[in-house]
Design goal:
The structure is a single chain. The protein has helices at residues 2-60, 66-86, 91-121, 127-207, 211-225, 270-274, 325-355, 366-383, 397-404, 406-423, 447-462, 488-504; strands spanning 230-237, 242-247, 278-280, 299-307, 310-319, 387-394, 429-434, 437-443, 474-481, 510-512, 532-534. By secondary structure, the protein is an alpha+beta fold. The strands form two sheets. The protein has a six-stranded mixed β-sheet, with helices on both faces. Strands 2-1-5-4-3 form a five-stranded antiparallel β-sheet. The longest helix has 81 residues, at 127-207. The protein is flat and about 120 Å long.
């Protein structure tokens, strides 16, 4: 095998050298042709600049037009010299360049004399003189076209020679490769297939959006890697005290039976327990027997999902045929490739859950509430359905904390959160909006029904038992789209105003807001406890 790789390495070096040589020939030929074309075009452009400058001077007598004349004269000489230097010893090109130079010099002399005469006497070139100058210029252009055609022919000829050299090298290399082609082709195809599969897995893993998706991708990859095999992924959940099973297409209960999934623990898997690979065949007599794969009737290979020295699970593969060492190595490589992606998805999911939830009540936090409000308001606008918002504030919460301690205050918050969750519908949304405030969003609900839900919440909170502590109450404000507000911000602001009005009215009551209400409206007398009040204008 080493000899084969040595020969392959020598061939690779030879191919690289040949390709470099031929590409260098082609590159030099193309570069030379490009430089010649640029210089030839520069000659024509320089002469045209001189012509433009002289015409401008004859028409206006402004000497500023002689600047392009002088610049063109210098540029023509520079490009002519550059073109001669690019093709030293080329008799045909030298002859054509001499012809170009003579025509240009003749034209230049004629026009320069006319410029001098015009500057001294003010007499412009006569029609015969102008016709003669044009004839010289036309002759120059015809000669220049012939030069361009000659340069193109020469460039194509040189590129053809370079291409033939490349083809000759390719034929020679093909003959050389034929000697070991079968073995090399087999090795390369195998390695390409392996690398392609690993690259595909890597790309798909990094493009996956969740832990479950990345687990299924890994399983599908393994079941393609080991034909007729069944694969499952075991991941630690519930505080790392339980294993969750993710099955592939082939890993049904008949092919990979795992009893009592609910009782599986990390120590049930030997790969997780030992933090290294654990393979077995039917009939293996080992001191340590795996509770998961030990009773399987077929051979199995189990690879731990290791991330930073910590085992987050394992991958179990059961196959009716023995798994070759090459496939086993690729299995380990694939699992090692997937482990950090699975771990990252898990960490991101946990971080997102913590970032969007309140640890004390278990409800979504304000950030989550604001995002949900925007989404629900947008949907209500598109579907032309109402959306009610209920803002809830626990009455005298600071006094409750001061008299009974923060632990009692925390219990009150958790209890109110529980009451809200158990009262609203499954499609409704509740969050701890901050401090002792809660926000409830009721989709497809108008102001009237929102008031009824708010009143039910107020009554349930009033019946809450804090274990011997004085009873608690809450003030609630209700606003609805589109009756009271046209935007999410307006809906939230109006619900907050309604809540403020409820607190100003003596607390332990429900107020609603109407878009017709104004901040300058005179204050109203406090309603009796428990009353439902609307802020609609009188």
């Amino acid at each position: 095998m080493r000899r084969v790789f040595s020969v392959l390495a020598a061939i690779v070096i030879l191919i690289a050298g040949a390709l470099f040589a031929t590409s260098d020939i082609q590159r030099n030929a193309a570069l030379l042709g490009a430089r010649q074309q640029v210089a030839a075009q520069g000659m024509l452009t320089a002469l045209l600049d001189q012509e433009t400058g002289s015409r401008g001077f004859f028409e206006t007598r402004e000497r500023t037009f002689l600047v392009p004349w002088e610049d063109g004269t210098s540029a023509f000489k520079a490009n002519l010299a550059a073109l001669r230097s690019l093709e030293v010893g080329n008799v045909d090109l030298d002859r054509m360049l001499d012809d170009q130079a003579q025509r240009a010099d003749r034209w230049h002399a004629e026009v320069e004399a006319a410029i001098s005469r015009f500057g001294q006497t003010g007499r412009r070139p006569s029609v015969p003189e102008a016709v003669q100058e044009k004839a010289i210029m036309d002759g120059f252009r015809a000669s220049h076209d012939a030069l361009d055609a000659s340069l193109a022919t020469q460039r194509n000829r040189e590129l053809t020679v370079a291409t033939r050299v490349a083809m000759g090298v390719a034929v020679g290399l093909a003959v050389l490769l034929a000697a070991i082609g079968l073995l090399a082709r087999r090795l390369i195809r195998r390695e390409d297939a392996r690398q392609g599969a690993q690259d595909e897995l890597r790309e798909l893993l990094h493009g996956s959006e969740s832990e479950s998706e990345s687990r299924l991708l890994l399983i599908h990859h393994i079941e393609r890697l080991v034909t007729q095999a069944a694969a499952i992924v075991l991941t630690r959940i519930a505080g790392d005290d339980q294993l969750e099973v993710t099955r592939g297409i082939n890993a049904d209960e008949s092919r990979l039976p795992i009893a009592d999934v609910e009782t599986l623990r990390p120590r049930s898997c030997m790969a997780v327990r030992l933090s290294h690979s654990y393979d077995r065949r039917p009939g293996d007599d080992r001191l340590s027997r795996c509770e998961i794969c030990g009773a399987l009737p077929v051979a199995s290979a189990c690879e731990p999902l290791l991330v930073g020295g910590r085992v987050i699970g394992s991958v179990l593969v059961a196959s009716p045929k023995s798994i070759s060492s090459e496939r086993r190595l690729r299995l380990s490589e694939s699992v090692g490739q997937a482990a950090p992606v699975i771990a990252n998805h898990r960490s991101l999911a946990l971080a997102e859950m913590h970032a969007l939830s309140d640890t004390l009540t278990g409800l979504p936090n304000r950030r989550s509430a604001e995002e949900t409000l925007k989404r629900m308001a947008a949907f209500a606008g598109r579907s032309v359905t109402p959306l009610a918002a209920v803002m809830i504030d626990i009455d005298h919460f600071k006094g409750l904390n001061d008299r009974h301690g923060h632990e009692t205050g925390d219990k009150a918050l958790a209890l109110v959160a529980h009451i809200i969750r158990s009262t609203i519908r499954g499609g409704d949304f509740a969050s701890r909006f901050g401090g002792e405030e809660f926000l409830v969003l009721l989709p497809n609900t108008g102001r009237e029904i929102g008031l009824l839900v708010a009143e039910k919440l107020r009554v349930e909170i009033g019946h809450a038992d804090l274990g011997g502590v004085a009873a608690i109450s809450a003030s609630l404000g209700v606003s609805a789209m589109p009756a009271d507000a046209a935007t999410a911000d307006g809906l939230l602001r109006n619900a907050d105003r309604a809540l403020y009005a409820a607190k100003e009215s003596g607390r332990n009551c429900v107020h609603s807001f109407s878009s017709a209400a104004t901040e300058n409206e005179p204050a109203r007398p406090a309603p009796p406890t428990g009353a439902l009040v609307s802020l609609a204008p009188r």
